[in-house]
Design brief:
The structure holds 2 protein chains of 2 kinds. Chain A is mostly beta strands. Helix content of chain A is 0%, strand content 51%. The radius of gyration of chain A is 13 Å and the shape is globular. Chain B is mostly beta strands. Chain B contains no helices and 11 strands. Chain B is globular. Classes of the chains: A mainly beta, B mainly beta. Chains A and B meet through strand 6 and strand 11 of A and strand 5, strand 9 and strand 10 of B.
């Protein structure tokens, strides 16, 4: 069964901490994405990557960075967590070199609370 | 940035009822997608639409690509309790064709 695995289902962090959210896919997909989900706002794209060591900003990149050192792993980094980053974070992957396959596979999400 | 607005924001219905929801955009899309998110899980693709006017079914679900290419509709017939979840529309946007998701419609079905 192909999968996108997010390392934590629930996280509680303190304001100002550096936070790492990890995502691993086992489908050999080129494309990987990080979204955050908030009630009434849907899913908003934070960062995405079409290749190893490649990254592009999505619609709401402020306060976040990413790392893709290996094809199967895409990490989201909150450099200094703030309470307005409390949210559900969803990782996704898809095949294809330029994102033209829209069958995204999502992980189960990480619910992050910043206190 | 580009936003997809979904209506209604939430629906509370009785089992067996039919459901209709829609998604609108300020700009034209060439592909419309509908995803469902079960509680505690990530979204899963239900239906993909590629042509204006296209009507596509997946079991009790039927989706339509609006003629103006700025909207799409999803209907669920004879709802059952497992239809509970959040339904998202989505479409590829921009030079890199990354997916933009709608604001979501929360569906609750009472047995």
């Amino acid at each position: 069964d192909v999968k996108v695995t997010q390392s934590s289902r629930y996280l509680v962090k303190r304001t100002g901490e550096k936070v790492f959210l990890e995502c691993v896919q086992d489908m050999d997909h080129e494309n990987m994405f990080w979204y955050r989900q908030d009630p009434g706002l849907g899913l908003r794209l934070i960062y995405f990557s079409y290749d190893v060591k490649m990254k592009e900003k999505g619609d709401i990149p402020e306060g976040y960075s990413v790392s893709r050192e290996k094809k199967e792993r895409f990490s989201l980094i909150l450099e200094s967590a703030s309470t307005n980053q409390t949210s559900m974070y969803l990782c996704a992957s898809s095949p294809g070199g330029q994102g033209r396959n829209y069958g995204y596979t999502f992980g189960s999400g990480t619910r992050l609370t910043v206190v | 940035g580009q936003q997809l607005n979904q209506s209604p924001q939430s629906m509370f219905i009785q089992e067996g009822e039919d459901v209709s929801m829609n998604c609108t955009s300020s700009s034209i899309f060439n592909t419309w997608l509908w995803y469902k998110q079960d509680p505690g899980e990530g979204p899963v693709l239900l239906i993909a639409l590629y042509k204006a006017g296209e009507l596509t079914s997946n079991g009790r679900l039927t989706a339509q690509f609006g003629i103006t290419r700025k909207d799409s509709f999803l209907n669920i017939s004879a709802s059952i309790p497992s239809d509970v979840g959040i339904y998202f529309c989505a479409g590829p946007h921009g030079a890199t064709n990354k997916l933009i998701f709608g604001t979501g419609t929360l569906l609750a079905v009472q047995p």
